[in-house]
Amino acid sequence: MVLAALCFATTGTAQALADVDASPLSVGAARILIGGGILGAIALVTRPLMPRAAPSAEAAVARRAPTWVIVTVGAIGVLAYQPTFFAGTRLNGVAVGTVIALGSAPIVTGILDALIRRRMPSLRWGVATAIALVGVVLVSGLVGGAGAAGVGPLGVLASLAAGASYALYALASKLLMDRGWSFQTAMGAVFGVAAVVSLPLLLASSPGWLVTPAGLALALWLGVVTTAVAYLLFGWGLRRLAPTTVATLTLAEPLGATLLGVWVLHEHLTVASAIGLVVLALGLVVLSLPTARKEKTDVSAPA
Fold first, then answer.
1. Structural contact between residues 212 and 218, judged by C-beta atoms closer than 8 angstroms
2. Which of 183, 227, 251, 300 could form a disulfide with 56 if both were Cys (CB 3.0 to 4.6 A apart)?
3. How far apart are CA 120 and CA 112, in angstroms?
4. Are 69 and 53 in contact (CB under 8 A)?
């Protein structure tokens, strides 16, 4: 999961280095079209080869929901995440938008997981998530600055929608795995459907930037590394962990993004941000420390 988050973390640096004249909607559509298409193709190829696991106990909770509904909801979450995330950062600033989106994702995931899968988050998850969120706030630069001065309700709603979108596709993918699907098939179904819908969105969003060398390189990096590779790792971790744990572990993304900004883009790291990196890493370590008996309850192992 941390490796997946580090793949996600390269998104901002890649876009800064490519410096293409493209809208966030166009870049996001290209990313999902390429990455989702790869994941969908992998699912089609591997599905006949993968033995179907026995449904887990949680599958009975959501059994009344048809599979196509779960896949559709997951695809909607994938498609909605990027535009809502960028809308939040545009309206309220990158720092505030990122903190609200990333900070709300584990909380919304925990609420939905408790309601749908009847899995209450553990005390350790709550403590680790709280520590990690403090780190995210410090890394964002909000502390000691005027980053929150222009916060507006529309921007907050957009960022909350991004966090909810993440929770939707994470939980939808987990529900498919609860039914015995392999992680390749689950991620391929959700992202493959999103890829199909992304094609008309891309065509309608002035995709001329794709024919430039920098634009093509950016699209391939975002599609292959930050989507296909990242979500295969994401699915592999989600197969074995609770969605709440996964949502908190992906908070490693701002940690990786900040370090890349310093090392690659030569951005300045403030004292508060440096402290935030340490606090964020501490929260992830607390969550990742093994507790064998407890963690085994979150594994959906084949029978």
1. no
2. 300
3. 10
4. no
C-alpha dihedral (115, 116, 117, 121), degrees to nearest 10: -30
Distance CA 171, CA 117 (A): 9
- Nearest CA to 140 out of 76, 97, 179 is that of 97
- 195: buried, middle or exposed (CB in 10 Å: 19+, 13-18, 0-12)? buried
pLDDT value of residue 80: 92
CB 235 within 8 A of CB 173: yes
Tokens of 139: 């890394």
The mean per-residue pLDDT over the stretch 195-214 comes to 93
Neighbouring C-beta atoms of residue 57, cutoff 10 Å: 12
* pLDDT at position 75: 96
Asked if 183 and 238 count as a contact pair (C-beta separation under 8 A), the reply is yes
Q: Are 60 and 223 in contact (CB under 8 A)?
A: no
Domain ranges of the chain: 2-49+62-290
**pLDDT confidence of 99, banded at 50, 70, 90?**
confident
Residues 42 and 236 sit within 8 Å (Cβ to Cβ): no
3-state helix, strand, coil in the chain (%, to 5): 80, 0, 20
